[in-house]
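step 3/5: co-fold with iron/sulfur cluster
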Amino acid sequence: MNKTILFGGLTPLHELFIKGAVESLGYRAEFLPVPDNESLRIGRELCNRGMCNPTYYTVGNLIKFLRKEAEKGINVEEKYLFVTVGACGPCRFGMYESEYCLALKNAGFKGFEIALLNQSEFSSEGALEITPPFIWRLVKAVWCADIVRDLGYRLRPYETEKGSVNKVIKSWADKLYVVFKQGGKVKDILKALKGLRKDLEKLDFDYLRVKPVVSVIGEFWAHTTESDGNYHIHSWLEEEGAEVRPEPVAGWIDYQLFIEAEKLKQEIKVKGITKSRVKKFLAVKAMAFTFRSLYDLFRSVFSFRPKELPSQKLLAELAKPYFDYFVVGGEGHLEVAKHVYAIKKRNSHMVVSVKPFGCMPSTQSDGAQSKVLSDYPESIFISIETSGDSEVNVKSRVLMKLFEARKAAEAEFEKACQKVGIDREILEKTPSPDNLRKPFVKLSNEFTGTAARFVSANAAFFRTSYTTCKEAGA
Ligand code: SF4
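step 4/5: write tokens
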């Protein structure tokens, strides 16, 4: 194929690694710039009325890019092909392709080609060929981006030199891109990830900073993007003193495979057992198992950070009293399930659910979240709607909740100190030795906040130095 493949819609790290993976198969690839409110404006102008915000942002972003290219005298219809993910719905996701076509026509790019990747069937329409090696390379790229991105959010709040984590991640992201471009063999990816770990080990961290852990969930695009589309919620929360837990794209793929397997199970139950149905069912199960194992292999390099992907079966069980998992569209039951999971597993102090303006599935989930909140009043939860223009209001609401989460994190830290039998003031004056200032120090699973987990896991050291400090009259 002579055309350059254009794509976009995830985070900069995902897009860089995907670019490498696509190029490794002999294609030319470019990712679109991060969408901004100008993209939203263009999308609103050129698409149908009543669409959801991600449609406007993503469609508008493509047109904005093409217009700029056309201004340079480039024949964009000859040069580019846009690849996007599609599905049959049932939400507005099923209408993305027609919205792209309408906007392209309205913008004067009628002959511009779009290739559609069908997310539920792993197939494609258009010039791009979806083959097993293509999927495998994409999966490796996406999993790697998930893990490296998550590490950034886990480590940055505790770095003693501002910007040091980003600097190391940036340099290794560029190296990983080359690894993916060269075919992305698992052994080469692991080697690069180990190099990243080694460089992170050279940095200094202070894990006694008490920070609330905040999970960002919601509609897929809205909780994934790092753009105006969600008011840059991840980086903003981090600046406000939170340790952010972003959602991995791997969880979304895992969910798609789970639903596919459940549908096949029902088909076998209702229509009867056939060789082809069983074969398909086993293939989906094998794919899910392989993908999860690969995710675990990559995170093993970083002492199994981030945590494992939650079991889809468990998530479906947790959501059951509130949301049927066969109600698909958007994140289906996942928004509710992730909230209940965060409460039961105590993996965050606060949950922010991001709902794009005009999103049907998220509106349904929000209704169910009220019931979750009445069942678990201890949950610090906030649902926000991103319309592109109410940023100040949204952020001030989030800040109020963040205040509660901060208090919860502080109380938990006090509890951890008491449990270990040390006084917080003395603890904070006790310098941690070098081995406790490393990025992958031991953290206990007893608490939620990193500072509390750190103190609890290294209780023996803190008790000894506490006694020494007390004897020295500190
Ligand atoms: S889940 Fe919501 S925001 Fe996403 S495509 Fe569907 S309607 Fe739009």
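step 5/5: annotate
The radius of gyration is 23 Å.
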